[in-house]
Amino acid sequence: MEVQSLPSIEDEFGTPAERTRHTNTWGMTDAQLSRRKAQVLQLEKLYPTLPPAWLEMAWSFCEVTPDEEIQRIVDSKSWEGRPKDRPSGGVIKDAITIQDAPP
Length: 103
What we know:
The protein is mostly helical. The protein has five helices and no strands.
């Protein structure tokens, strides 16, 4: 009988430090990335109920978006307004049928 060993989690996915590595999808410089890390930590203290990923996303958006575009968004109030009406509740018809078991 041959014993086969399975790869460890570290072998498959890397060490915890490698798995939690941030990516640079916004194309920022090293200075911007360092500033983001420090300022997002401050934002986490100011807004403890918001998810850190949201804070990081908002910070990154404001960093890479030109000031004129941000001002246009603020002036047009395109991020404000009523939430979209979405249906809630209801019944899905003909999704499942239950039949009696044969005798």
